[in-house]
Amino acid sequence: MAARIHYSREELLALRYTTSLQSQHCTYARQASCRLQQLIRRRRPRGKRAGRRHYKIKVVVNVFPRQNFYDFHHCSSPSVSKSNLRQVRMISSTNSKRHISCTLWNARSIEKKLPAVADSILQNNTDLFIVTETWFNALDDTVKARFSSILPGHSIHQVPRTRRKGGGTAVIGKANLQVTLNKSSPFKTFEILDANVRLSSAMIRLLVIYRPPNSCKHTVSDFLNEFTHLLEVILHAKGNLIIVGDFNIHVDDLRDRDALKFVDCLNSFGLEQHVQFSTHDKGHTLDLIITRSSDTFISTITNDWLLPSDHASLHFNIMSNAPPPSTIMRTSRRLRNVNLDNLKEMLSSSLSILPSDDKSATHMAENYNDLLRAAIDNLAPPVTKVFINKQRAPWYTIELIDERKKLRRLERKWKTTGLVVHKDIFKAARSVYSGKLHEMHAKYHRERIQNADQKSLFTIIDDMIGNKKIIARMLPDIDISELPNTFAKFFRSKIAKIRHGLPSVVPSDFYTLNHCLSSFTPVSIDFVSKLINTLPPKSCGPTHCQPVY
């Protein structure tokens, strides 16, 4: 057990009456002195011989935080043990864990608004971006590839409208979120995306619904019949239920009969609608967020109009801890630390062991590659490190950040005044900002391609394409053995079409060459070596075909 150090009354009072306290630590020192004085007054003195009184109080100094710790080395008393005064790390009372950030938005064609969506995800650190009216079709895999090049580390799950244009729902989630789509039966009056979002502490059953406006074919009564059938099935499912989307019902209008029927339907199933402000440009509440009345995992809902659409984007948090960020593993070698003398010595000693009777160039090259790889592994072994896969958008510049600040300022002014002129000014600025997003994104990739060499060009194209599996599904299904012949046939037919389209011009004079090649100058080994070294480094796997001379 460690020995306790005791302080006398005079030594403790020296801490109180010191004159060299710094101004920024006076508050902490005053609190400490007041506490010490209270401890002294509580202790009654005991009688000692010769009338002397001694005070021994056990003290633990834990007042000063780590960054504002006061230096007690100025104390004049030589009997004070300065090494006993230690810094105590203060524990913050705030919770550092982050909740799931979600956004709901009606896009009305998301194809030309992907940079704006990426901008919103970056600025709000959105984990789950929910979109209605994507206007996707079944063959729009290029949009997924394009979004992967704009903002990597995200995945798109969609349910497109197949029979006609428009409609469609989608969910854009981070790579660390486990989102799986469930099979659901089709409905005539609305479109639905049914997904499970698995979090660290809960499982969310997410339903994204888009209901088209009223028409002669489908009315609100028809929608309520199908929606009631859906709720009867889905309410018995496990997990927390969230129903979001564009319902095209004016739930803010208490005189609307269709809205009252819809609200009564929600109340009869024990559901609650959380959006209490207008979400459409005309002032009505069309985009809704619905949960069970007993659930309290949805935080305060906010909105903004920064995305180019006639619908506002709704932001809300799911009160569950966000999963840890996704990680990537990278393997590298420290080739700069390789000693060339040691490498030469290892190669010379290894080459002397190789059999000299092997006359096959392929076997000799393979043996040399194996020896070189073993030497490199010995001198610079591969090191694997784990990195956090952070969101990166290199095309997003400081200029765009400044423009977004101006746009937010105009939005606040419009919301404060409510004037139509401020609304028009904000819309015009939003269109300019959306155009700049497209411009900066195209400029970034254009400069990458222009400044790339032959090697890095293929890597840049792969980054722009995104997921190669998506592009592979778009290519025609051709047997790989017939692929070269198919390419050759395509180019031959293309050249034939070009020649057929050119006018037939017969030259008046024909020229003939009377010269012929009769002798060749032999080349030296240095010339051939120089010619080979100037060629670009290319490699291919070993072939089974033997050259014929």
Explained architecture:
- The C terminus is likely disordered.
- The chain contains 14 helices and 14 strands.
- The N and C termini lie far apart (about 90 Å).
- The strands form 3 sheets. Strands 3-4-2-1-12-11 form a 6-stranded mixed beta sheet, covered by helices on one side.
- Strand 1, helix 3 and strand 2 form a beta-alpha-beta unit.
- The radius of gyration is 37 Å and the shape is extended.
Mind telling me the CATH superfamily name of the largest domain? Endonuclease/exonuclease/phosphatase
- What is the first-to-last residue Cα distance? 90 Å
For the sheet with most strands, the description reads:
6 strands, mixed
Radius of gyration: 37 Å
Helix content: 25-40%
Instruction: Tell me the total number of β-strands.
Output: 14
Helix vs. strand class: alpha+beta
Low-confidence stretches: 19-25, 54-76, 91-96, 541-549
Shape call: extended
CATH architecture of the largest domain: 4-Layer Sandwich
CATH classification, class level of the largest domain: Alpha Beta
How do the helices and strands follow one another from N- to C-terminus? Answer: HHEHEHEEEEEHEHEEEEEHHEHHHHHH
Instruction: Give the total of domains.
Output: 4
| Structure annotation, total helices | 14
Strand order in space, largest sheet: 3-4-2-1-12-11
Mean pLDDT: 79
> Which band does the percent of strand residues land in?
15-25%
